[in-house]
Write a structure and sequence with these properties.
The chain has 266 residues and is mainly beta. The chain contains no helices and 18 strands. A hairpin with a 3-residue loop joins β17 and β18. The radius of gyration is 18 Å and the shape is globular. The mean pLDDT is 95.
Length: 266
């Protein structure tokens, strides 16, 4: 198993780190395979979501509240990481192709606080959700060697003081599939595949912290993305969402409880 966590690095500094462990019910044999450097004295924006695709491990490393660090590819915070499952580095990562100044683990830069990361069972692509500041949350595809623009771009949001951050998007940066202004505090995401809610096949399920909502997103036509709010403020701030691989029922983890969503047969 693989675990992403907030690691105490000493002197009040912490990092988004990843460990590999052999699991049993009594003990975890725990070994670090990645640390986001430099460690930073901050309690903010760890990101820290994982996706496994083939023999690769993708991870989100938030920018820890440091803003423009997300535009510095010689530092990990504010980026999407790609390593092998044993922690070694793929030789087709951007550094070895056309991004000589990038750290070897970095796959994409310019993110703020990505709290959702998922692999689509339909197109094999990896998608992320990202907190903006005061507005500017987004859902989008992870793309090799590209840049989502934080903090040059504000994605439609502003600083919490109300001052402008930057444009929503401009050429040369990755364009998200969907933006939310004002912020919904987008958190965990998944792409639905299952029998329980057949009408949601292939849709992105987006959860949030601020309005405690579940939303479906039909992005099959990128020129006409369709969003539907399923519920708000019913189960609390949603931290995680998982689809049961056999039944297709939906499980949510909130700050208070584990919830199950299923259809009620009349």
């Amino acid at each position: 198993m693989w675990i992403s966590y907030s690691e105490d690095r000493g002197d009040w500094k912490t990092s988004t780190s990843i460990a590999k462990a052999n699991f049993n019910r009594k003990n975890l044999s725990f070994k670090n395979i990645f640390q986001a450097n430099p460690p930073i004295d901050s309690g903010y924006h760890f990101g820290s979501r994982l996706v496994i695709k083939d023999n690769y491990l993708y991870a989100s490393a938030g920018e820890r509240g440091e803003g423009m660090i997300a535009q510095d590819p010689s530092k990990h915070p504010g980026s999407i990481i790609r390593i092998y499952l044993d922690g070694s580095i793929p030789k087709d990562n951007p550094k070895f192709i056309n991004k000589k100044k990038w750290l070897p683990e970095i796959y994409q830069i310019g993110v703020r606080n990505p709290q959702g990361l998922t692999l689509s069972p339909y197109d094999g692509k990896i998608y992320a959700s990202n907190h903006g500041a005061k507005g500017g949350d987004w859902f989008g595809e992870i793309k090799k060697g590209e840049n989502y623009g934080w903090k040059i771009l504000g994605w439609g949001g502003t600083n919490y003081s109300g001052t402008k951050i930057g444009p929503k998007w401009k050429p040369g940066f990755t364009k998200a599939i969907q933006y939310w202004v004002p912020s919904i505090a987008a958190s965990a995401i998944t792409i639905y595949k299952g029998n329980e809610f057949k009408e949601w096949e292939g849709l992105a399920l987006i959860t949030s912290l601020k309005d405690m909502s579940l939303r479906t997103l039909d992005f099959s036509n990128l020129n006409n993305v369709q969003e539907n709010i399923i519920f708000k403020k019913k189960i609390g701030r949603i931290r995680d969402i998982q689809i049961h691989p056999i039944t297709g029922k939906i499980y949510f983890l909130t700050q208070d409880a584990l919830w199950l969503m299923e259809k009620i047969n009349d």
